[in-house]
Amino acid sequence: MNRDDFQKLADTRLEDAKALLKAGRFDAAYYLAGYAVECALKACIAKKTREHDFPRKDAQSVYIHDLERLLSASGIRELFETESAHDPRLEEYWEVVKDWKEDRRYEATDDGARARAEALVEAIGDKDHGVLQCISKYW
User: Fold this and answer.
1) In angstroms, how far is CA 51 from the centroid of its own chain?
2) CA-atom Rg of the chain in angstroms
């Protein structure tokens, strides 16, 4: 996969999450929304490599689903933190997004699923202050 693939996937996964949210599929919306950010960060990582390809499988530090670690590996943490310091809403949104875990897909739906999915999709997709909007400046 390369940078372009990850950019397209980031946008697609966010749109998928919005559709699932609208359909009342809250756990699936939450799950896919997080992948939008993961793909965006991996696009930033791919930008740093030759021909914008994603690093080989043996680069284990980036074949992960941990958004905090991917933010560090992307090389944009300082830029992201500077923007967050000047945009309190972005900072609040990152607090929601950074706790996303891909293994949540194995948990049963609970009473907080709707609120959790709505908060995550908003935090990622807000056109003015969202996490994806910020990351996409650097991919």
Assistant:
1) 23
2) 14
**Would you say residue 32 has pLDDT above 70?**
yes
Domain range spanning residue 91? 3-135
Integer CA distances (angstroms), 106 to 15, 27, 31, 58, 63, in order: 22, 10, 10, 27, 20
The answer, yes or no, to whether residue 115 has pLDDT greater than 70, is: yes
Q: What is the pTM of this model?
A: 0.87
Span 13-28, mean pLDDT? 96
Are residues 37 and 7 in contact, defined by beta-carbon separation less than 8 angstroms? no
Confidence of residue 109 (pLDDT cuts 50, 70, 90): confident
Helix axes 3-22, 113-125, angle to 10 degrees: 140
d(CA 109, CA 114): 9
Give the chain's length.
Answer: 139
Domain count for the chain, please give it.
Answer: 1
Token pair in block for residue 19? 């559709």
Q: What's the CATH code of the domain at 82?
A: 1.20.120
Residue type, 87: D
